[in-house]
Amino acid sequence: MTAIPVEIISRPPQVHNAAKHLPKQEPARIVITSVDALTAENVRGCGDDNPYR
Amino acid sequence: MYQAIVSPQEDLFVAVRAGRQEAMQFPSAHYAELADLADTDGQVPDWFGDAAQRAWGIDLAGRPIGDVLAVRAPSILPVTYSRASWEINKGCNFSCEHCYLEQRPFAGLPLAEKFHLLDLLRDMGVIWFEITGGEPLIDSDFVPAYKHAHAAGMMMEILTNGSRLYRDELLETFAVHRPHKITVSMYGASPETADALTQTRGAFKNAYRGMVAAAGAGLPIEVTLIITKHNVEELDEMRAMVRDLGLPFKEYGSISPTYTGKSSTLATQVPSLIGKSDVFQGCPAGHTSFHVDPLGFTTMCKVGRDNPINLITEGPEGLLRLPAIADAQMLRTGGCTGCKLSSTCRVCRPMARVYQEAKAPLGHYCQHGTKEGT
Fold first, then answer.
1. How close does chain B come to A8, measured CA to CA in Å?
2. Mean pLDDT of B262-282
């Protein structure tokens, strides 16, 4: 437990969180893409601010 | 050894190759064809061989799939994740003052349970997998655990201080079972500086030797320059050394409290580097990724460690609770209710809580520490 007062406000969940459950459209054929594009929805948000992410 | 991984990833079907940024995405029918061919000792079809040639410059067409591709099965579990990180052991052979771990005990699962944990991650669909510590390369089970995860078809990333990278067993392991990335933290450009910062005699010599050996072996190394008040005067030399090795690097100058809310680390912060972080844009931790500690307790990430779930005893079904646990941590405001600057915060809520618990000066993490009248 934290001694810090905690209050829940109406800040919506992060967009990435909700996006996980959105159905994605399949490509019609094989597509050459990038690791960055494939992992956009699972890379942690602290990104370049946290060397130990 | 396989040349590429073919796998479901959440609701995508992908092919990836360790160390390469280029990747493939294809329709489910293509994945099914590759899976069927793998099950029947078939050969790489021309369409995949052509794509592999274009993406990675390798010739796979007509070769036995079992020799060159790791074709992963879809997860049949009620909970799936594509990314995970794992502290194999919090023990470390360095003693850095800025370390985010307040305590670094040498403790972890027995090897058989490590294998079981890795099998669970595989069955949940984890492809992007980071092994960290502590210093992961000093764990006596690192090599068999790494090989086990690699054989499961995971894109492996290792976070290390580099001090053991020169050892033949590790170089040979990484040369044969190639990681996607090895990230080496660098703490100075001289023995005097790096050994003092890490409070470890020989730290610089061993870490630099490791980087040279790994670079010479052609391993996919990325260097992280950790900037503290102890080494900031050598920053230009650190950059030059890494450039001379031909390695990419990133710089980090934002020192956090320990993740248990202790402020002892903040004394190492370079004041001029406070507030240089990008605006926080959201985070899917707990939804598409998670973190596992040395004993198998699972949390949304390394920072937000509320309500850990014992993955060993509860199994993957336990992680059905994780998204809600993550959201609860991301929605905490900790006294920031109504703040007009919240949309441009530079830290996530779990990290802000760490700063608050450490009673850190506002200027380390909050715009109210640097702006007036807001």
1. 6
2. 88
